[in-house]
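dumping the sequnces here before i forget
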Amino acid sequence: MDVTITVNGKERSAAVPPETTLLTMLRTNLGLTGAKLGCDVGDCGACTVLVDGEPVNACLMLAAQVDGREVVTIEGLSGFQTLSPLQEMFDLFSSFQCGFCAPGMIISAKALLDKNSSPTVAEVREALAGNLCRCTGYTKIIDAVMEVGARTAAGAERA
Amino acid sequence: MRPFDYLAPQSVEDAVAALAENSPDARALAGGTDLLVDLKHETASAGLLVDLTRIAECRGIEESADGLRFGSLATHTEIMESELVRKYAPSMIDAARTVGAVQTRNLGTLGGNLVTCVPSLDSGPVLVALDAQVTIAGIGGRRRMPLTEFFVGPRKTALEKGEILVDIIIPRANLGKPCSFRKFGLRKGQALALVNVAAAARVLDGRIAGARIALGAVAPTVIRAREAEALLDGEAPDPTLIAKAAEIAVTEAKPIDDFRASAAYRCELIRALTGRVLNEAIEQAAR
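..and the predicted 3d for all of it:
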């Protein structure tokens, strides 16, 4: 079946079998490998993308269900040689070790900051509860998100 | 996943017709957080998925003549953000907040949570405590029943082949009824309940009325602790009475031993959580 979605502002189409997940369509059909295939059952959050602005597990949606909707992946956050404020802070705080959870973490953090530009630590932890880091780097991840919030409050560009 | 066909009907009637025509090989798809996992693990199979998510009638949360109506496709996030739910049944928000994590709450639906019908489902206790009703549709028409009758056993509901859940209604008489929910899991995020409990009650002329205690994860389905409820009705609220009701609630449950917790530990949790939710509901009622 033909599926057309707006990905990172551009309309993209692919002919896929009905059992294709959004994650498979992004990675295999559209070549966007930023969202990762981790657990494939909605536990780890490595595949997190925004659908109509809300973070979801791309492994738990069929591509067909997203037909006509808007998707943002990690590739949509920054330009080719520039970083978004969240990416900059994750870099500055050395928030990642292996990096596998990074795209999902950053997308979940972006979804939070889009709604709540200066969250509390408790709000950050709740927003990231569906993203697992097996290198155990949570403290620095939370610090990076809090710093973006603090800088936004001080007048910097939003996440 | 093994190949399947896919349909996305726009009405309840088209959906139940598609399910009936393709029985027994067709499955209804809502948020997908359970069904797609089962299809990947091959613990479920389907030749056709009938995607319900484009059916307008099954969406949204609204006040109707009957009470507070949740379309079966209302997501846990929609419940958390609904002003109507905050006004009429805020304990539904407390329960929704404990489901999965943000991503799964954005996908997972109230109807899906009830239809999957695992004993630990977090949406169950508050709805049972508020005497919720459900509407079911099939090719033969529609029927309505109490949620307690909809729950038949672990992963077993009153839905017949080809039927779907259309909506869930908290009756008008119970809108704003004091109600409290507590869940205990092994972690704060992404954890199934070891025990989840809701209690609802009113206090009229200094006496408890309409007491409800709903226990989850400690029996094949969500159950009401009816003997404990009966002890409370007509009595003046009192700490000794509430402690006694919590003790009785423990005897009405049938918790299991498993790798998450022992039955004995679950009994302690039932006693502690039942006492807390009863106190909280009665405190709200006294306000």
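Chain A touches chain B at residues 1, 17-19, 21, 40-43, 45, 48, 54-57, 59-62, 64-65, 108, 111, 126-127, 129-131 (CB under 8 Å).
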